[in-house]
Amino acid sequence: MPIARVQDLALAYDSFGDSDAPALLLIAGLGTQMIRWTEPFCNTLAACGLHVIRFDNRDSGLSTHSDAPAPDVAAMMAGRPISLPYRLTDMAQDAIGLLDALGIAQAHVVGRSMGGMIAQIIASLWPQRVLSLTSIMASSGNPALPPPAPEVMAMLMGPSPDPRQDEAGFLAHRLAFARKIASPTLPFDETGHRALALAELHRGWQPGATTRQMAAIAMDGDRRPRLAAITAPALVIHGSADPLFPLPHGQDTAGAIPHARFMPLEGMGHDLPPPFHAAVIEAITQTCRQTR
Fold this sequence. Notes:
Largest sheet: 8 strands, mixed
CATH topology: Rossmann fold
Strand content: 15-25%
Number of helices: 11
CATH class: Alpha Beta
Order of helices and strands: EEEHEHHEHEHHHHHEHEH
Number of strands: 8
CATH architecture: 3-Layer(aba) Sandwich
Shape: globular
Structural class: alpha/beta
Radius of gyration: 18 Å
């Protein structure tokens, strides 16, 4: 697995397609790894004439993990000040550093969930580096938007078994959460989700990483003023059945970005299962073909 040195971090990445083609950077979501952008998904994008790059965010997978203690969840939920080992802006800077390390001056930037928020920040703070923006199942950070479904939030914020002591319990918890946020119009692929959870666990699980990233999201605040400054062609994709960030989160994000195209996907939850890949890839490539 290639490793890029970005300041004091090691960022794991890989790529697909012709390195001379326009670059497309894929950014993963909360507590997940780059392998959530599956090889068939990446290969299909590459076949559209793109140099596709996926990477592990800091504190995920094979990239550098933080040794900071997990933030106080109760304090965070109560709105009290907490100590953060890093912020979403730091994670956005990581992505820019990766492009620098790879000698890439400009890229199309695509992010899902937390990765969509990071992509928004990149497009707002480094407009000269971003050819286009695609934000998938993310939020604007507007505090007036509908909250997640209570049972989903309870699972996300609550404790889960430590896989070092109870791997079976950990996997059961991950599968239960995946089922809660999955697209309700499709059969739940338990075998596939179990294999992915195991792959991420054995590839680079880190205690406290999800909580640290969750705190970075919670403390980033309302991004709408920054979204208003985005000049790149922008696409916002959101599932109509998303229980973590309900559909108004996508609508609000698109409304805050000048001239953004909003693409709701009927029946999609807070996941990106294969039956939606063709529509998502076609929309991304259409956005990549736009010019400022």
